[in-house]
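FIELD: query
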Amino acid sequence: PRLGAANKILVPYCTSDAHMGDAAAFGLEFRGAAVVRAVLHDLVTTRGLGPGARLLFGGVSAGARGAMVHLDYVRGMLPLPREARRRVEVRGLIDSAMWLDDPPLRPWASTRKSFFGLANATANVASFANVTHLGEECAEEHADELWRCLFGAYRLLSVRTPYLAVGSQFDTYQLDNDFGGCGHWGCRPSGPEEEAFAWRFADETAALARSLAVGERYVYSSRCHRHADSLGGDFFLRGCGGVSMQAALLRLLEEPATLPGLWIDEQCDHFDCCCRPADRTTATAAAASLAAIGLC
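FIELD: result
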């Protein structure tokens, strides 16, 4: 495999702040940014990351939002002399951070948690988490609402470091919350109201994807009912039109002169129309490839 010799570092999610914060609140520690700094420090001081290296910095779901917030600051966090930092090539993989600033279809609350929209949730985090990597351009544009600099629909537009952004047009996490907390994979539209909401959501996600496709970026948006697609076998499978996430990532890394790149799945007209092969042999081969790459 072309990425078979790469080193892979997994940073578990344990800070409940999308890897962004550096604060104590409610008797708890929200130190995601400190964890990211510690990992980068370790890569340089004990793992040999240095000039001439290529660093693909990314994440899925909450990790994608953290990667989005930190990406333009990664070089500066490396404990290297300034000139040496410049010789580290940094790229991003941001999977499922394309959040839309729309009110939910059904706001909800339980004894343990509530949901009144992703914007509301993000503003709450920004109020206590002491997130400092806001991006100079974003912070200037949204000076009165800095929470927007933690939110995909706004922050992805101003990230300068080249990246691959992945966002499903029927994102399960967002639809789960928007439909009232029915549980990721169970949140299929039931009835005309939910159907209309889901398709409006899909169209807005596709529009956001188009707006992001500038400069050295590749933006990949399927019509799958998925979230964090790059973690599974779908990474290798070609969607409608024959483009896979693997191909999109390799283009970002190996063919920067051909960017921007954009693949938006709009060739089918029903919910979760993924254009995924029904042939079990094909799916099994993709899963085997994933395992082999994981073992390299």
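FIELD: remark
The longest strand covers residues 54-60.
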